């Protein structure tokens, strides 16, 4: 073989090796790119699965009793509230002092009347603007505090019982007609409510609110007295009740709902201290499956009395609580037992609804 041919063969072999090396490098690059893409895809899937797991955990995470957090919030809010009150008082004192000085200057130095009047106007306008801004600031601050407090309580007492999302309006009101039909007072003078919640509990449509009912004072008709102060829960029923039945756990002062006078007391339905009133003769049969769970409701340091009303399209429960459970605590300390009572009562009435 000639030298030239040998050289060509060698060159061709070298070219083939170079091409093989280039193909091998390209294949390695492609493999690395595929592995990198797969790694990225795996990471994305893992992140998505992690987010889904976090969302599921949030949905099923048990809501802890908020008493400790709300007590810390109460202390900070009350301290801030007292400071703002003190500042407002100081501003008022300064305003009165400046006005007094202005009047004295007007009397003593009449020649400087224009300047004194300008000073008076500046002080007056400045005080007015400051007072208005402080009033708006405090109103919004109180509103936010009340909203957070009520939402925290609702989240806790309805936790693990809801069927879907609950609609909560801290300042929403319950329909007055729904309250009047419960016959706490036959001719109420004034009704107010707040903290409206509605949705489903264990697939039962319901609504609840804090309610206060006023009636005329027996001795002075110009005055009003509170006939009911507590929480009202109303559950819808598919088949309306033909008759009215009331189950009452009396308070210690002997003042019960006025509506019970319109119905006959039925004996041998529930043991003392419960009282049953009905326009029906089959009240015992109606309550037979639920009687065991009705008896679980007991008065305590927070629960004053209890009323259940079966009427029309609703099963209604009225819990008359101490002020501490319904008001927004300011000076009184918040303790966990307060909210445990509310939560336990909600569970008890759900047991009753399930069996009527």
Give the spatial strand order of the biggest sheet. Answer: 1-2-3-4-9-8-5-7-6
Which of globular, elongated, flat, extended, rod-shaped describes the shape? elongated
Unreliable residue runs: 1-21, 39-60
Rg result:
36 Å
Q: Please estimate the helix content.
A: 40-55%
Summed up, the domain count is 2
How far apart are the first and last residues' alpha carbons, in Å?
Answer: 109 Å
Overall mean pLDDT? 81
Main sheet summary: 9 strands, antiparallel
Question: Can you characterise this structure?
Answer:
- The protein folds into two domains: 67-157; 167-353, no CATH class.
- Helix content is 51%, strand content 19%.
- The protein has eight helices and nine strands.
- β8 and β9 form a beta hairpin.
List the helices and strands and how they pair.
Blueprint (H helix, E strand, L loop, with lengths): L2 H58 L6 H42 L4 H45 L9 E3 L6 H5 L9 E12 L2 E13 L7 E13 L8 E5 L14 E2 L9 E4 L4 H5 L3 H4 L8 E9 L2 E8 L1 H4 L9 H18 L3
Antiparallel strand pairs: 1-2, 2-3, 3-4, 4-9, 5-7, 5-8, 6-7, 8-9
Helix pairs in contact: 2-3
Short structural summary:
This protein has 356 residues and is of the alpha+beta class. The chain has two domains: 67-157; 167-353, no CATH class. 51% of the residues lie in helices and 19% in strands.
Characteristics:
elongated; alpha+beta; 51% helix; 356 residues; disordered N terminus; 9 strands; 8 helices; single chain; 9-stranded antiparallel beta sheet
């Amino acid at each position: 073989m000639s030298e030239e041919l040998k050289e060509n063969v060698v060159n061709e072999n070298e070219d083939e090796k170079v091409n093989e090396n280039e193909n091998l490098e390209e294949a390695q690059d492609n493999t690395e790119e595929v592995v990198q893409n797969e790694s990225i895809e795996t990471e994305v899937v893992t992140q998505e699965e992690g987010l889904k797991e976090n969302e599921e955990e949030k949905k099923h995470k048990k809501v802890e009793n908020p008493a400790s957090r709300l007590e810390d919030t109460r202390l900070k809010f009350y301290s801030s509230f007292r400071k703002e009150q003190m500042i407002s008082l100081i501003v008022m004192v300064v305003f009165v002092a400046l006005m007094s000085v202005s009047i004295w200057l007007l009397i003593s130095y009449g020649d400087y009347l224009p300047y004194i009047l300008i000073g008076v106007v500046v002080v007056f306008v400045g005080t007015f603007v400051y007072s208005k801004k402080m009033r708006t600031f405090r109103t919004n601050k109180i509103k936010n505090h009340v909203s957070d407090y009520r939402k925290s309580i609702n989240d806790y007492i309805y936790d693990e019982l809801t069927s879907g999302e609950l609609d909560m309006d801290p300042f929403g009101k319950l329909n007055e007609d729904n309250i009047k039909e419960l016959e706490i007072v036959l001719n109420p003078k004034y009704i107010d409510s707040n903290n409206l919640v509605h949705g489903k509990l264990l697939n039962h449509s319901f609504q609840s609110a804090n309610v206060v009912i006023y009636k005329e004072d027996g001795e002075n008709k110009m005055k009003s007295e509170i006939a009911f102060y507590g929480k009202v829960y109303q559950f819808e029923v598919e088949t309306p009740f033909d008759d009215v039945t009331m189950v009452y756990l009396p308070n210690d002062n002997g003042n019960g709902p006025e509506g019970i006078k319109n119905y006959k007391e039925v004996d041998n339905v529930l043991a003392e201290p419960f009282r049953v009133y009905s326009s029906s003769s089959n009240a015992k049969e109606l309550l037979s499956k639920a009687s065991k769970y009705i008896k679980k409701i007991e008065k305590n340091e927070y629960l004053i009395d209890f009323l259940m009303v079966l009427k029309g399209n609703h099963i209604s429960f009225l819990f008359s609580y101490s002020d501490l459970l319904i008001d927004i605590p300011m000076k009184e300390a918040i303790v966990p037992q307060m909210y445990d009572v509310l939560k336990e009562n909600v569970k008890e009435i759900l047991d009753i609804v399930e069996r009527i």
